[in-house]
Amino acid sequence: MYLRELTGGLKDLQGCGPKRLEQLGRLGITNIAELLGHYPRDYEDRSRTVPLNQWKRNGKNICTVVRVLSHEWFGFGRMKTLKVIVEDETMRASLACFGRPFLENTLRVGEEYRLWGSFFYKYGELQSSSFEFEPLHSLSGRSVFGKILPVYRLTEGLDQNILRKFIAQALEDYAGKLDEEVPERFRKAHGFMGKGEALSTVHFPASQGDLDKAVRSIKYEELFALEVVVAQRAIRRKGLTANHADHANGLIGLNEIDTENGLSTENKNVRVVRGLQQKLIERLPFKLTNSQMDAIAEINTDLSAPFPMARLLQGDVGSGKTLVAFLASLFIVDAGGQSAIMAPTELLARQHAETAAKLLEPLGLSIAFLSGNVKAAGRKELLKALAAGDIDIVVGTHALFSKDVVYKNLRLVVIDEQHRFGVAQRQAVMEKGNNPHLLMMSATPIPRSLAWTLYGDLEVTEIHEMPLGRKPIETHLAKMSRQQNVYDFVERNVLSKGHQAYFVYPLIEQQTDDEGGSKSSELKDVETMAKTLSEEIFPKYSLALIHSRLDEEQKRLTMEAFRKGEVQILVATSVVEVGVDVPNATCMVIEHAERFGLTALHQLRGRVGRGSEQSYCFLIYADQNEEDGMFAWKRPEDLSEDEQSKMGQRLRVMLNETNGFVIAEKDLKFRGPGLITGTEQSGFKRIGLADPYRDSDILKLARADAFSIEAQSTEAKELFLY
Ligand code: ADP
Ligand code: MG
What are phi and psi of 107, to 5 degrees? Predict the structure, then answer.
């Protein structure tokens, strides 16, 4: 059987009753396949034993072997606490057993134990109060020592040991029976592990080397599945294109005539647009950039062909892609078709709908907005109008492609900020119309070579120019200890002048820790900071809070108030990262900038500098732990010198570099291989373990393999089925 076919089975796990099922459900685990796909977010290396005198100062656990010397007690009455004195050949230490007096009987004087714990110096002695142990010579199969243990993302009530037990059991029951997803010849050629072995190893690796191999095997499998779909589309399109080769040639001819006539770029551009497009351009208060015009020219050519366009439009943040999408839609409407524009969030979809209404309704078009939150009567009316062809352009979220949505004549699908959508979703979208044209837009520019590998079935258009009249954004780095200077600056140069500011933080609220309890993080969160900023720092100004867990209506009202200027300070998580467009906002303050990838920072910075006023971006970083966001997968002591020096350089890139394409390249260079955590950073949605961006070497292999499959072979038929 295939892993994805394991759609039940949780109930059969030992100790998995209704309560556990509910808890697992909260982690998104409803079946065995999902349980086994709940990959560790980290590992505890208990395979190496170190002497006590090598305890680490940074609160990290070590694994050691000690002998119990004596028992002591301190405190009185109910506060009486056991202290176990231990030693190894290097030194002594004491274990404070708060609330665990019964350890008197398990940690016996004279016996040896393996110990896993974190140590610190207190009252002149080495101490630990948080530790696990096991008799040195016990032979228990359930031992949690001498190996590398997985650490999972948890939810309240569920601890590491329970999850480890469930996963170990599921592996025991199923790992040996799993079918391979990847054709054997590819797997063998690259020396990757089989499915069952890779899964077992990624959860319970015997060594770092095995783990690396398992992770690569799984990533390859995921990327292979992706590239198979890409290859399939490419082959289909090629077939279509071949049939219409004559027509395509004709179109290329048309473009050549323009150049031959020796028209200036500007005139040529005017010739390129037509009908409604021309009308819109005439109404705009600004001139399109040459890049925008070139993009439209390419798109118009594609849209005139009788086979579907598949184009990726890449342009730096603020380069005006939305307008290009509208112009493409107008071409389709002129020809009697409908266009659907999909955005990744409701917030962004709504903003696009409003812009579309403002720009396009005056041309006589009918525009609609659709999301999961458009309910009941309104929705029914809307669906009727769409099916009847009374709506020309509909803007929305993925709800645009739900089952009950029917289009009269859907001819163009635009997907904004496409990296948030997987290939599979793309496929679903394309099934709506009768082979509609596809325009994907990406605001996280990626190097062309990588774009080609990732979206091998798409042609790429790049916008390299920014609209005229934009002032460069002034960017500053500031240590957290100097944050007050930043706040003062913002008040003086932004708020008091009637301009608006964003404040961005990495967390929504203080997080839950590993044991399911609540813990105060060293990171700032939006909820706490919204309070601090409004009560203590900027009491004179109006402030609002926005993050992904608020309901859509609340988000909408908040954004509306911000756009209208009723709210002057917007405190946010990275939900403002993508697409938000408020020209009067001239300042972006990002706290814990060390936690964000460069591309994310670039995106965030792109929210300002949209008007004619001078804009500012402040990157405030915590003084010490700049490395955490980037190299969380590696222990700091394992970083090479090269990597360490990169950390210092990383944020500095933002000072000198404004070009998103260049920043994307640098971001890629700064990332070490083998990272598992911190995946939101690249801006790409991860598929399981693989990050197409970071794992581009594996992606290349997968792509070459997928494209090497003969379209007509039986292998193709099996693989292309799903
Ligand atoms: P992005 O490419 O990041 O999606 P947008 O489409 O949101 O950028 O455009 C950013 C802003 O620039 C919008 O306010 C838009 O109206 C404006 N804009 C677009 N094209 C031009 C242009 N040619 N000249 C001036 N402003 C423009
Ligand atoms: Mg955009």
Answer: -100, 90
Beta strands in 17-124 (DSSP E): 42-45, 62-74, 81-87, 92-97, 112-122
Residue 720 has pLDDT above 80, yes or no: no
CA of 620 to the centre of ligand 2 (A): 26
pLDDT for position 644: 47
Q: What is the pLDDT of residue 551?
A: 85
Which numbered ligand comes closest to the C-alpha of 326?
A: 1
pLDDT of residue 270: 39
Q: What is the pLDDT of residue 256?
A: 31
| Smallest-distance ligand from the CA of 322 | 1
pTM higher than the cut 0.70: no
Nearest CA residue ID for atom 25, ligand 1: 467
Mutate to test the pocket of ligand 1, among 323, 329, 584, 605 (most ligand atoms within 8 A of CB): 323
Q: Report the topology of domain 256-304+320-442.
A: Rossmann fold (3.40.50)
Contact 361, 394 (CB under 8 A): no
For residue 278, give Cα distances in angstroms to 64, 320, 326, 327, 354: 75, 17, 12, 9, 21
CATH superfamily of 474-511+521-657: P-loop containing nucleotide triphosphate hydrolases (3.40.50.300)
Supply φ then ψ for residue 326, to 5 degrees: -65, -45
Residue nearest to atom 24 of ligand 1 (CA): 467
What atom in ligand 1 is closest to the CA of residue 322?
6
Query: Is the separation of the CB atoms in 151 and 50 below 8 Å?
Result: no
Residue to mutate, 287, 288, 319, 603, ligand 1, most ligand atoms under 8 Å from C-beta: 319
Q: Would the pLDDT of 253 be above 60?
A: no
Cα 322 to ligand 2 centre (Å) = 6
Cα-only R_g, the chain: 29
- Both tokens of 474, joined, read 């002034």
Q: How far is the CA of 688 from the centre of ligand 1 (A)?
A: 34
Ligand 1: which residues within 6 Å by Cβ?
286-289, 292, 315, 317-323, 443, 467, 581, 610
Residue nearest to atom 9 of ligand 1 (CA): 320
Which ligand is in closest contact with the Cα of 323? 1
Question: Does residue 382 contact residue 391 with C-beta atoms inside 8 Å?
Answer: yes
Q: What is the residue extent of each domain of the chain?
A: 1-41+152-179, 48-146, 256-304+320-442, 474-511+521-657
* Domains 1-41+152-179 and 48-146 equal at CATH topology level: no
- More reliable by pLDDT, 583 or 4: 583
Which class for 564: exposed (0-12), middle (13-18), buried (19 or more C-beta within 10 A)? exposed
| Comparison of pLDDT for 253 and 106, the residue scoring more | 106
Class of domain 48-146: mainly beta
Q: At the top level of CATH, which class does the domain 1-41+152-179 belong to? A: mainly alpha
Q: Which atom of ligand 1 is nearest to the CA of 323?
A: 6
